[in-house]
Design brief:
Layout: E1 15-19, E2 22-26, H1 28-52
Antiparallel strand pairs: 1-2
Length: 58
């Protein structure tokens, strides 16, 4: 049985998710959580850039 690298539980299937430019093999639950964290981080960065008047590209 494969083991999730995030929660160290045995799972039936692993999913590849890119985190910080690197692919990680995690279970479906951890993959959803990591995607949500990434979306929140992008949104908060956009708000901060808007407050500072940043007009460049990311």
């Amino acid at each position: 049985m494969p083991i999730c690298r995030e929660c160290n539980d045995e799972v039936t299937k692993l999913v590849s998710v890119k985190v910080g430019g690197k692919a990680r093999k995690v279970c479906a639950d951890c993959a959803d959580r990591l995607r949500e964290e990434g979306e929140v981080a992008e949104a908060s960065e956009g708000v901060i850039q808007g407050m500072m008047g940043y007009k460049g590209r990311r």
